[in-house]
Amino acid sequence: MTRRTIYDAVTRSRAAELYDEGYGVRTIADLIEVPYEAVRQWIDTYRSVGIEGLMVMGHKYTKYSFETKVAAARAVVDDGVSKAEAMAKFGIASMTPLKNWMRAYREGGPEALRPKPKGRPRGSGSPPRKLTREQELERRIQKLEAENAYLKKSIALKAEKRSRTARRPRP
């Protein structure tokens, strides 16, 4: 479970209205009794993608193209554009992916933002090797010997159980 509180669309909408009326983020947070950080993120989202993006916030994930990721990360890291301006310019709805792209861009350059293949690669298991006739027979013998040992053990356990539960005449 997350410890974050999820606020409804009405609260986020009210924050956007107050922002449009000229109130600052701290004042909005005090008026609607929501933590400052939450309101700051809402206002960043509102300024970057508008009221529609703010209303669907937390309901869907947006997929961004490789070019958008590189351009946004490059703008912030290399060109000195603020994160909020980059979000508005490139239509990024949340600060989190932008921060992740910036970190990856700093560590590995543009290639670090290239999409990675999902799932397990085809043929990842080792191919079954072809056994010789002799190896096949040895494997079959081992299997039969194990089966035989299991059956002998089972028969011995059943006989022991019967001997324990059998009635003995009293002296």
Would you kindly provide a written description of the structure presented here, covering whatever features stand out?
The chain has seven helices and no strands. It has helices at 9-20, 25-32, 36-55, 66-77, 83-90, 95-108, 133-165. Helix 2 (25-32) packs across helix 3 and helix 4 (66-77) runs antiparallel to helix 5 (83-90). The mean pLDDT is 85.
At a glance:
With 171 residues, the chain is an all-alpha fold. 63% of the residues lie in helices and 0% in strands.
| CATH architectural category of the largest domain | Orthogonal Bundle
Count of domain modules: 3
Strand-residue fraction?
under 5%
User: Whole-number radius of gyration?
Assistant: 33 Å
In whole angstroms, the N-to-C terminal distance is 69 Å
Structural class: mainly alpha
DSSP E strands, number: 0
H-E string: HHHHHHH
> What can be said about the biggest beta sheet?
none
Low-confidence regions = none
The dominant shape is elongated
- In round numbers, the mean pLDDT is 85
Helix content: 55-70%
CATH class of the largest domain: Mainly Alpha
